[in-house]
Amino acid sequence: MARTTLVDLVNPDVFGDAVMAKMGKKIRLFPIAKVEDLQGQDGGNIVVPKYAYIGDAGELADGDVMTPVKLSQTSVSIPVKMLAKSIEITDIAANNAYGDPVGESEDQLSKSLANGLDGDLFGHLSAITGAMLHTSAAGAAVNSDLIADALEKFGEDQEGEKYLLVSPARLTEIRKDPGFQRIANNEFGIVGEIYGTSVVVSERVGAAEAFIVKPGALGVYLKKDANIEVDRDITAKSTVLAGDTQYAAHLRDDSKAIKIALV
Length: 263
Hints:
- The chain is of the alpha+beta class.
- 25% of the residues lie in helices and 33% in strands.
């Protein structure tokens, strides 16, 4: 008698596409990161160009001739990383489980890979030091005054789209601020606005830190979509689903991200 096992129910290509689609929606910082697809490019590192500012324009008097300047470019080499996770489901569990083990595997693998990449991106924000680090006064709450002070780090470029990333532990402080405006949750997880910044809550942010981030501050370069492999362990009578993805990520523009150290 022919017996259907979990391996017969999973098409790796279709399963991989489903995991990738779910993974992209679960990565909290994807909407404000610059995401590029670099699949098919060789090498264990990705070289990303950076251009230096040519300087302010000066007055040109009648009859004068402009002196051209060079467009200066540097580059940064970012290592490619692999995220991977596997699930093993026994035949007994698959045959007797209540619900959908295939669908649950999709959800779990996509969440696991997404959290790994999200954690890496938040790690780059946590590592901010120097000119873009704002340290609060002792015991200061996350409120309009603190945000206004921190925004000075952007210099004259304080307007436009920006996001305040805070931990759940700090959300109550923000909600008590008279300047806080509540906004219903959306796909990106915005809960409100304070001092011109959209408030996003994430457990990836520590209670002693917060971030103000503009679009394009972070860069993500996808080398390989979610790849799913399915195999049988005949000795254990189980099916193993293994997922992985390859990418490179970095703080692409350090002038667009502020770290607030809460002391």
